[in-house]
Every structure is written in C-alpha cells, then in structure tokens.
Amino acid sequence: MLFNTIDFIIFFVLILTTIIIYKNRNFQYFFLIIASYVFFYYSNNFLITLIIFSTILDFYIAKKIYESRDITYKKKLLAISIVGNLGLLAFFKYTNFAISQFNNLFEIFGFEKIQFLEIILPIGISFYTFQILSYTIDVYRGNLSPSKSFKEFALFVVFFPQLVAGPILRASHFLPQLREKFSPNWKSTELKRALVKNSNLKIGITLMAFGFFKKMFFADNIAPFVDQIFQNPIGHESYVIILGAIGFGIQLYCDFSGYSDIAIGIALILGFQIPKNFNFPFFANSPAEFWRRWHISLSNWVRDYVFFPLVISKKNSIFRIVSSIFVTMFLIGIWHGAGINFIIYGLIHGIYVGTETFFKSKFPSLKNKALFKSLPVKIFSILFTQYLIFLSFLSFRIQDLDHLTYSMNKFVFFDFNFNGFNEFLLDNKLGIFLIVLFIIIHIIAFKRKNILETISNLKLRYWTIFLISLMVLILFFFDSNPRDFIYFRF
C-alpha cells in the first residue's frame, strides 16, 4: 500500500478515527497490530507468512537466550536466528542474482544454464529482517530484556508506518514507548494510551506534508528527466551525465526521505517517536559524515552489528579498521539490491570512507589547523564530498555495466562538449527547474534548522494556508499515476 495513494489516506483516516473513538488501551493495542498486518498483507499478500514466521521464531529464541546461562547454547540459538532470517532474505532477494552469475560462468565453459526461479521479492524484507535481528542480538549481548508478551514483540516488528521502507527501529527505543502507553504495570505516570495530542497532530501532519511534497512534487517530477538520460546514456556529453547524476541524487533523497518523513509523521500522530533517518546529507563535508547523515538507521545498524564486532579485538590496527570499513560498506551495497552495480556502490563508499579514515589516522593534527576550519575550506570540502557522492549515485542508478562505465568516465573526465546545451535546457526545463528549486529550498532549510517547528507553530489559519499551498502544487504536477517509492525494491 503506497503512502501516496487514496487507499492509504482512507486506511490511515480509519485508523485515526478508530483510535480516537475507542480509548481502551487493550483494544488500541490489538487494533494497531491487526491494522499493521492488513497494511502488510495489502502490499505482499501471502508473503505475510514470512514476517509472521520471523516474528514467532525470534520471539521464542530471544526468550530462550535470555533464560539460558549456557554460552554455547546461547550462540547456537543466535545462529538459528541469524541463519533463519538471513536465509529467507538471501533466498528471496539474491537467488536469481546468484543463478545469473553461475550462468555467466557456465556460458564460458559451455555448460547448460540454470533456469531462473519465479520469486517475488517481499516488500520491506530487508528492513524488517535487520530490525528483528537487532532485537535478538541485543538480547544475546545482555543489552535488552526480551518482550514479555508476543503482542508487544509483534507490534514492534509490524508497526506499519515504517514497516516496508524504514527507518529501521531498535527495540531498546520502541518497546519502552509501547509499555508506557499500553502496560498497566509500567512505572511511568504518563497516560497509557495512543492518544492523538494536538501538538503531535500538528507536527505530524506538517512532517507528512513535507514528505508528500518531497516525493510527489520533487522526486516524481524529476524522475522522467533522470530516466530519459540513463535509459541509454551512451552518446551523452559530460554535462548531461552530471545533470542526470545530480537529478537522480535529489530524486533518491526526496523519494526516500519523503517516505521517512511521512512514516515519522504518522507515528508521531499516533503517539510514537521513531528515529530521524536523514539530516541534510548534502551538507556533509566528508564521506564518513555523509553516512552519519544519510539513511542513519541503516548506517547505525551496520556500525553496531557489523563494524564494531569486526574491530573490537584490534581497535588500534588501522589495517583492521580500514578492512572492516570495506566489509561494512560492501554489505551496505549488497543490502540495497542484488546486482553488480550495488556491489560497486558499496565498494566505492568503502574506498571513500576507508581512505578518509586512513589519512585521519596518519595525520590527526590536520583537523586542528586553522586553515581546515576556515569557511572557504569548509565549502570546498562540502562541494568535493558531494562530487564524490553523486559520482557513486551513478552505480546506484545504472545496472548495465557498459552504461555505468561510460557514465562514470564522462562524470570524472569532463569532455567540455556543450553541443546542444541550449536545446537540452529547453527540452528539460521542468526537471532542471525542480533541481534548482530544490537546491534553493534545501539551503534555506539548512540555514533555518528549525523550519519544521516554525511552520508547525504558525497560527492555525496560516498553517492551513501553507498545507493547502503544498497540496495545490502537488496536485498541479500530479499525473494521476503514483510512482512506487524507490526503496520498496529493497
């Protein structure tokens, strides 16, 4: 079920109305669980059995891990959880990719090719798999007590706002909120219901409006401009490839952060806080900082559950640290999709972050130099970082390796060929206008910092005018054919 459809609007209004009318906390608890499963079933049909299986598996495994004092037994249980969850993810997401690689090899030696399997990728499987694994690993590490009831764990897993495209929740952050609102024995004196409060409602609706505006005004209308460039980029001049890369980076950001804004807004309206997933990544002044600002819930997940365990035994070894960065970034790349291009995407960022980390370890005093704190150097570092980031986005967008090689070559080695430049601008004036407009708005939002609070605190009539203005802009450019969110593919 897409957020940007009338089906979802009706679905959410029904949920909100029901929760406002029926204030019994047990009813609200079960209602949110059922509504979340309905939301997931609407998108995945019979594949809902996968998330139910994973929920049951890890609910009982985590309890057994917590109760056991035998470290060997704990490790075996954790292995069952990891193999079970990652096994499902690997089968549904990577089987046909593996078959295609074997077929390429078989073709060289003249062997008969393997037939592809008719596999449907369950929407959101990459997200909820990592979310469930973090819960079980935290229980294994002793950082978290397991859920006492199945319904509590089930709602943590299937909470519908962020279920299919994040942010990836942590049980340590979300379970206390459930207990505060629904448990009669919870120590908090806060009202134990998922009440819709006026302050939450206004901020939540504003966030949702931002999300819809990013997705339906910017991302969906920049997409045709990007698609026509990268459908077959061979023959395009460097300026076309660079504009296409910038357009795709903005499209990807508006699409994904738009979803996150809508999800966070919905959760806030229902009385829950879920973590921010983006923090002005296009103002990052280094590749490492970019990953502290972009898809924050994923980068934090791989940091805590992949990178830290890899370096824990040799914290002072720069070789171990850099090699662990490469492994971590490789996993981020392959997490995004089953394709050579995504592996390249991960390895490129491994080179970026690994190189940065290496030089920082060799020249630690440089960051304290006055020159590196000056405004011109800060601006240069931001621009150079974004040059590297948008270069990497080519490998995210282009699957054909010949097309990717050509595009990256044109991006890096500028050809200074501006033939047809004016015609290109005129033929693509909407896409280029939206790119420029986004950059202007993004800079203003970054400078203001608290633009969400500013708009949410407007007087009701001005706030309403603002929302109506956004809606009019969205509808004016809407072609009545809502596009999928990009991250639904992952």
**End-to-end separation:** 15 Å
Give the topology string: H per helix, E per strand. Answer: HHHHHHHHHHHHHHHHHHHH
State the shape: globular
Helix count from the secondary structure assignment: 20
Major pleated sheet: none
Explain what this protein looks like in three dimensions:
With 490 residues, this protein is an all-alpha fold. The chain folds into two domains: 6-187, no CATH class; 199-489, no CATH class. It is built from 20 helices and no strands. It has helices at 6-21, 25-44, 48-67, 71-109, 125-141, 150-158, 171-182, 198-230, 238-269, 287-293, 296-311, 318-336, 340-362, 370-373, 375-397, 401-412, 421-427, 429-448, 451-456, 460-477. α4 (71-109) packs antiparallel against α5 (125-141) and α13 packs antiparallel against α15. Residues 188-193 have low confidence and may be disordered.
